[in-house]
Amino acid sequence: MNKKVVIKSNAADIKKFLETITGRRAKFKNGASTPLPKTYAVNETANKLHPNKQRLVIKDIIVHSDDVKSFILAPAGDAPLAYFRAGQYLSLSLKIGGALLTRPYSIASSPAEALAGIYNITVKRVPDGFVSGYILDNWIVGQEVTAYAPEGNFYYEPIRDAHTVVGIAGGSGITPFLSLAKSIADGTEDAELILLYGSRTEDDILFKPEFDALMEQCDKIKVVYVLSDSKTKGYEHGFIDKKLILKYAPEKFSVFVCGPGAMYNFVAKELETMDIPKKFIRFELFGETKNPAAIQGFPPEAVGKTFNCTVKCLDEEKVIPCSSEESVLVALERAGIAVPSRCRSGECGFCRSKLVSGEVFIPASTDGRRIADVKFGYIHPCCSYPTSDISIKIF
Question: Burial, 309: exposed, middle or buried (Cβ in 10 Å; 0-12, 13-18, 19+)?
């Protein structure tokens, strides 16, 4: 079928268009001859806030116990420390033997201290932990370490959160709350913090002098110490449950939770019984799943098995062993393969890779992939566990 298309032109529009071209040519001709700047202020600011890597030096080590130490980090060169939001984490890049690793640690210091050239991270020994034990036993003052820019979503956002944050912390999960409390005290954050801090005994409480001093300094901060294994005057006893939360919480509040997995599971069930909007509930990253075979949906025939993982990166290909009981990311790191990673919890997507063939088990609680990635076979190796021989492509 033939169709006639009639285009009506307007002489005035054509004339205006031609005048625009003439005017632009004149501006180009009369423009300044000075060269364009090599960098722009906005790009320089972005590079300071989000550097690819940071060279740091251990300025001091604070020993809390044989199994817990705080490391004070300062710039190793002239570059300033990257700024961050209270509650974010710092990913360390380490080489231990032939393994190339990253590990995220919450920052205990405040953003204001970063401007003064200080980060504070606290490391607690994890039973059978590969990295925590190495750091605690080997790091010394004056040693240089490498880290990426601070990241994470575990921070107070006034547009989203209630003015009062009820923090629920356990063990070394207290560190991001120390950063938040300091930020409230120095005016960086405009919020109130009611912190329920669970420990086994009084001796297990971390940063008690710091929190007590902050409460004296700022009436927007209240810390309630909860002991599970002992009854001591001046402390709550038991677990942080619905009853205890409601005892101290105001009518409207956000809940921030950071601690060991067992505490997460317990608190999550308690919060389900409370009428709290989902936007007011935030859990810090779980970290890598322990004992994936115990999770519903894990194929029983894969329990205790070790499979072959064919790794393709650029033009290289390598076959490595990969246990069903540890993530694909851990297998890659043990083999000395440099894999980009940050959160190790399935959220950030830095380790995103293509699953070319084979099957993996991904716990629903840590599956942070986009819908398109699920459809087209991409995985986050940090939360993927092989249940057959697999082949992956790293980007």
Answer: buried
Q: Does residue 244 contact residue 274 with C-beta atoms inside 8 Å?
A: no
Is residue 387 within 8 A of residue 359, CB to CB? The reply is yes
Look at the block and give the residue holding tokens 């209270």.
Answer: 86
Burial 78-107 (b: 16+ CB within 10 A, else e): eeebbbbbbbbbbbbbbeeeebbbbbbbbb
Residue 293 burial by Cβ neighbours in a 10 Å radius (0-12, 13-18, 19+): middle
Alpha helices in 237-393 (DSSP H): 242-248, 261-272, 328-334, 371-375
Q: For residue 283, which amino acid is it?
A: F
Question: What average pLDDT does the segment 1-26 reach?
Answer: 72
Prediction pTM value: 0.83
User: What is the C-alpha separation between 23 and 391, in angstroms, rounded?
Assistant: 59
Q: How confident is the model at residue 20 (pLDDT cuts 50, 70, 90)?
A: confident
CB contact at 8 A, 191 and 184: yes
Output the six-digit token pair for 151: 């990241």
3-state secondary structure of 330: helix
